[in-house]
């Protein structure tokens, strides 16, 4: 299965190019992961910054969710 879908930059719309490739084990399966990059270096820097900001936001949401599950709720009847 070597099909490749159209992969455009989410910011500028240019066709992305293949960057770093590596293999990763997912359960018993070995999959090939290919990082794609925007050919415009300035645009790629902005996309990387946006991705990092989104990753930090996502991790903070996961921490809040985990903390809320771990906290004990006290029901007070008035």
Q: Could you describe the 3D structure shown?
A:
- The chain is an alpha+beta fold and 78 residues long.
- It is built from one helix and two strands; from the N terminus they run ββα.
- The protein has a domain of 53 residues.
- A hairpin with a 2-residue loop joins strand 1 and strand 2.
Properties at a glance:
1 helix, two-stranded antiparallel sheet, 78 residues
The average pLDDT score comes to 87
Distance between the termini: 64 Å
Strand content: 15-25%
DSSP, total strands: 2
The Cα radius of gyration reads: 20 Å
Main sheet makeup? 2 strands, antiparallel
Question: SS-based structural class?
Answer: alpha+beta
- State the order of secondary-structure elements, H for helix, E for strand: EEH
Uncertain stretches of 5 or more adjacent residues? none
Widest beta sheet: strand line-up: 1-2
What global shape is seen? Answer: elongated
Fraction in helix: 25-40%
Q: How many DSSP H or I helices? A: 1
List the helices and strands and how they pair.
Elements lengths: L16 E10 L2 E9 L3 H30 L8
Antiparallel strand pairs: 1-2
Quick take:
Helices cover 38% and strands 24% of the residues. It contains one helix and two strands.
């Amino acid at each position: 299965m070597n099909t490749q879908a159209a992969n455009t930059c989410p910011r500028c719309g240019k066709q992305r190019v293949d960057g770093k490739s590596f293999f990763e084990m997912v359960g018993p399966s070995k999959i090939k992961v290919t990082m794609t990059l925007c050919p415009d270096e300035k645009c790629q820097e902005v996309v990387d910054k946006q991705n990092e900001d989104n990753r930090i936001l996502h991790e903070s949401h996961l921490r809040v969710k985990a903390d809320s599950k771990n906290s004990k709720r006290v029901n007070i009847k008035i």
